[in-house]
Amino acid sequence: MSSTDDPRVVAEAATEDYTVHATPLTWRMGRLSLASVWWALASAMFWLILGALVALTVGTVDAIIGMVLAALVYGGINAVFCGYAARTGLTANLFSRALFGHGGSVIAPILVALTAIYFACFEGSVIAVALEAYFGGLPIQLWYLVVVLYSVPLILGALRMFLDKFNGALFPFYVVGLVAVVVWTVLEHGYDDTWVTRRPETLPVSGPGWWWAFTTYLADFVLMMATWDFARFARRTAREQRFHRWVTFGPVFYLFTIVVNGLVGIFVAMNIPTEGPLTEISGVLGIVGLMGFSGVVFVWISQTRINTTNFYLAVTNLESFTSRVLRVRLPRVAWGVLVGAAVYLVMLSNVFDFILVALRYQAVLAVTWTACALTFILMGRLTGAGDAEWRPGRVPRFNWVGVGAWSAGTVVGFAMLTFGAPTSWTGTWALPVAFLVSATVQAVGSLATPGRGRAVLERPHDPREEVGDVWADRVRCHVCERFYVAVEMDRDPAAGHEAICAEHAQANPTFQRAAVRDAAAFRDGTDHPIGALD
């Protein structure tokens, strides 16, 4: 045991950020630093254009109602998630083990990674288009390459070592740019207050326009999963947690991100003429045409901030996925290069229409995951079950309650999307119905499960029960001989019950088989004492 951080672990964390480990308290970030990193998501041009597209479809008033409802729902759910992630130090990937079991949780990291790569392609292409429109000189393919080449190095270090300072420094410039876009638009085109009351002659969607607007924003529920990957860096004091629940990840963030950005997008879109239908690309060209070099700077700041988050999420989740499925660990630099190459190839392939369709189905997976996670946490509070058990040797291969809940909602959501257009009744209700189905199955299954309502491999000899403080005490792993906080450590029945860390427990099939046998022996009353070989 040790009471201090292992220097070798700290050196590795400087690039790996405890991606496959519980995040120790010594690696947590101050509230302003963490807010600076997460608020990079608030600066995507996507939020401006989405607000404008929703308003053009259902009218400004209905769009605003839908945006406010979405901001409150996002903020409320993430207020719960951020507190839980900070208390447990878990990523969405690690927490998913408690939901779905060791084998069932592999979908979560690949879902986040693929969605992050999609947004990195989309937002990166916006920067490239702005640079080409203003500077010219190079074909768009080379501008794509320029964007990727400067984006990858920005995420090769640890989150707490650079990105907080980088994004924090750029945020004031984004706010100034947002105000400048509005002022410039008024000076150039005048002010017409009819944008507030504008409404289409016929409503092209099923149901109330505000409800369609609200459900449109639910397609970005992957942000709920991303919250875990960032909130695990939060300190656990009451003061810090209040700030994060309200400001960093909660209602304040989403009111700014969805509502303020959306209002600016609506105003600008209805006052700046664009060539052809409004898209993120045509909107950016309109801003560059209006503001010139200042517009290019504004676009660069907004998109570079969001892309640091996109690339970071893609890299860390691909790293988690491959370490779980392929049992391969590569340095962060290698993952950065691979993600950059993938982003560039997708940009060149011009498959954005196909990706847009795929994203609708990914949204179903994110919504149903959120329903399962939220219900799991709330049911745990209701039954007094406490925090989740997530260690590889203490959860079954599949938690059939969680897998069934996620699958049921996903099947229903996929079916509704497949057999209905986005503006039809099924398209409008697909995500809310999928959420309700998953939440219901998760709740009923949890109540029907004996004991704590959770699938856990009950085994003896838990290191958590052998130390004074699971977050302050470190225990040496017998595989890598490094010390990690006791909260993630287990004993290896295949190696004389020596201690083993979470990373090597998940990558060792011999350990997992031995853990299952150990649990069976414990149930039968034939438990092996510590030190006995299996």
UniProtKB/TrEMBL annotation:
Statement: the UniProt record of this protein carries the keyword Transmembrane helix: yes
Regions annotated as coiled coil: none
Keyword terms: Membrane, Transmembrane, Transmembrane helix
Transmembrane segments annotated in the record for this chain: 37-58, 64-86, 98-120, 140-159, 171-191, 211-231, 252-272, 284-301, 333-352, 358-378, 398-417, 429-449
Keyword Disulfide bond: no
Superkingdom assignment: Bacteria
Stored PANTHER family: CYTOSINE PERMEASE, CYTOSINE TRANSPORTER CODB
Protein name: Purine-cytosine permease family protein
Organism: Pseudonocardia hispaniensis
